[in-house]
Palmitoyl-protein thioesterase 1 (Anabas testudineus), 292 residues
Amino acid sequence: MTATLLCFLLAAPVLLVAGSPVHDSNNKTVPLVLWHGMGDSCCNPLSMGAIKKMVEEEIPGIYVLSLMIGKNVVEDTENGFFKDVNEQVSMVCTQLAKDPQLKGGYNAMGFSQGAQFLRAVAQRCPSPPMKNLISVGGQHQGVYGLPRCPGEHSAICDMIRKALNSGAYSDLVQKHLVQAQYWHDPLNDDLYKKHSLFLADINQERGVNETYKKNLQLLEKFVMVKFLVITFNLLHSSLQTETLQESVLYKEDRLGLAAMDKAKKLVFLASKGDHLQFTNEWFNANLLPYLR
Ligand SMILES: *[C@@H]1O[C@H](CO)[C@@H](O)[C@H](O)[C@H]1NC(C)=O
Ligand SMILES: CC(=O)N[C@H]1CO[C@H](CO)[C@@H](O)[C@@H]1O
């Protein structure tokens, strides 16, 4: 039998270079909310910090909020491994609703797991309105394996792999391990549907919540970036990739993606690099237009 999988790798910090922001008092910019990937934090100067700076430089006057889950960078990083995802999403919804700068709406950009978390924000929390959702290497159909894990966190990653392999769908692991909550073993679909606390809920595996569907339709664009090195490697394994249009999620229309596709709201982009590796030029040419 062949199983199907979409993108399934995790975060490595993105390397970018940027200068200092330029401010403009007469600005009509759309604020941007960033959600970092696994092993990363809101404010790492080599990843989210660099992206924030670069966007601020390219779009003078823009308000960029890089989400910190917890009280400081250490907590933020740990929470990316261990904090219940549904709680994280609900914290973020509260934070966004309270932020006066976001009242008129905002664009959202999520990296790796941060991308599926922001999709949950779009589906669950329509106010303030999210305009464009940009998913950079998101794993909207989940992961099955943790082949990449940020170097400095390799001990944590080994522990997580063990826990996932021994019982990703047990209640204990589900409740305490972020990656278990978007673990999707294509050979054990029933277990996934029944026990996945986060991904199976936002992907409407246990029944369709019309509110999720309606809220997702409110997006102006849903931009999905994939990284071609990963796709290429998959071709050499026993698993096969499928396009979003080939997926059951799309065919059963559990999220209204077909309608969004028809309305040209779905944008598929590819970057030649490995997971989360791209250049400033690629970012500016391909993603910046959705932030203006
Ligand atoms: C559907 O989703 C909304 C938004 O999160 C939630 O308030 C509501 O309780 C959900 N309905 C069901 C039946 O789960
Ligand atoms: C520097 C500055 O004034 N930025 C503002 C530009 O406009 C947005 C949206 O009104 C504000 O959120 C920024 O603070």
In short: The chain has a mean pLDDT of 85. The chain has 13 helices and eight strands. The two ends are 45 Å apart (CA to CA). The first strand starts at residue 4 and ends at 5.
